[in-house]
Each structure stands twice: as structure tokens, then as C-alpha cells.
Design brief:
Layout (H helix, E strand, L loop, with lengths): L6 H13 L7 H6 L2 E10 L2 E8 L3 E7 L1 H17 L26 E10 L3 E8 L4 E7 H18 L19
Parallel strand pairs: 1-6, 3-4
Antiparallel strand pairs: 1-2, 2-3, 4-5, 5-6
Helix pairs in contact: 3-4
Length: 177
């Protein structure tokens, strides 16, 4: 399988990702940001739909195209390396939250870019959404690890990238009409 996008569309997404990079979160952000304590996601050749539960008993639903999905995957990995999360045992803990569905995708905020920062046993993500709004969220270590493993599974399942993490475009002849 491959992404659901052509090389030209992926290039356009990458250019938009770079153009719209939000500022890198900092230590001051950590003190006042909402924390994600659980996440569930569904992958597809078109990206990742993530439902996040905040400690304040609120939910956030976001859609990440393959470029943003890969950016979040790398960002989580960098935070895990910085925080030495991979040194001990780790695994998927999961949540009892329902996985988002294609019906709920209509209500999702489309993320076009993001930046990440390490915060010890947490990660800070600054999301830039289509339309210009931004949101900063914190992810506890285990929630970030769960999300990393979900993204890794979706990437493998849908063949979004190769062994060097280069996104794989769909050939025009393979595209659904």
C-alpha cells in the first residue's frame, strides 16, 4: 500500500508544513498547557485521525495528513530520546476510548504543521491547524509512547513510508476516482 496522495500532493503538503511551522514550545508552555492523558487513533492511506482525552474531561479530535503524521512520529521519537524513555521497558498500554471513525472525521480539526519539545517525562506539541488557529498540548510519557506505537503500526499497515521513512506516493493509475 501507499499513501492516498500523489508525489505532487505530498510535496505540496511538505511545503505547507514547513511554511506554517508554529513556534517551538518552551518550558513556560509546560506550566499552563492542557495535558493529554489518553489517545486513540485510526489510520488510513490519507493520514491519521486522533481522538485525545484531556485531563480536564474534554476531547480533541484531529486529522493529520501523512506528512504531519510522520512529523509527529519523529517528534515523539526525539522527545523519547531526549527523555531517555527508550532505555527501560516500554510497551503499548492503550485506552478504553473508542477509536475515531470516518463519521467523526467531519468534526476533526485538520492539522497542517506542528512542532514538538521535550519536557522530561512529557512532550509538548504545538499544532497549527488549517485556518490559522493553533493549540499547544502536553502528552504524558506513556500516552506519547502509545501514540508513537499507533503511528508506527498505521505506517506499516498502510505502507505510508519506506524503511528510510520516506513517504510513498500512490501512482496516479492506482488512485481511486
Amino acid at each position: 500500500m501507499t499513501t492516498g496522495y500523489s508525489r505532487a500532493e505530498l510535496d505540496e503538503m511538505e511545503a505547507l508544513f514547513v511554511k506554517r511551522l508554529p513556534r517551538v514550545p518552551n518550558e513556560k508552555d509546560k506550566r499552563r498547557l492542557p495535558m493529554v492523558d489518553a489517545a486513540a487513533a485510526a489510520g488510513s492511506p490519507y493520514g491519521l485521525l486522533i481522538r485525545m482525552h484531556l485531563e480536564a474531561e474534554q476531547f480533541v479530535l484531529m486529522f493529520l495528513n501523512p506528512v504531519v503524521t510522520l512529523g509527529l512520529f519523529h517528534g515523539i521519537n526525539r522527545c523519547a530520546i531526549d527523555g531517555d524513555w527508550w532505555a527501560g521497558e516500554f510497551g503499548y498500554v492503550g485506552t478504553d476510548m473508542p477509536v475515531p471513525t470516518s463519521e467523526s472525521a467531519k468534526q476533526a480539526n485538520e492539522v497542517i504543521s506542528l512542532t514538538t519539545a521535550s519536557a522530561g517525562d512529557a512532550m509538548i506539541v504545538h499544532f497549527a491547524r488549517r485556518g490559522g488557529s493553533k493549540q499547544i498540548l502536553g502528552f504524558r510519557k506513556q500516552t506519547a509512547i502509545d501514540l508513537f506505537l499507533i503511528i508506527e503500526h498505521a505506517g506499516r499497515q498502510f505502507g505510508l513510508w519506506d524503511q528510510d521513512f520516506q513517504l510513498l506516493p500512490v501512482e496516479d493509475s492506482e488512485r481511486p476516482n
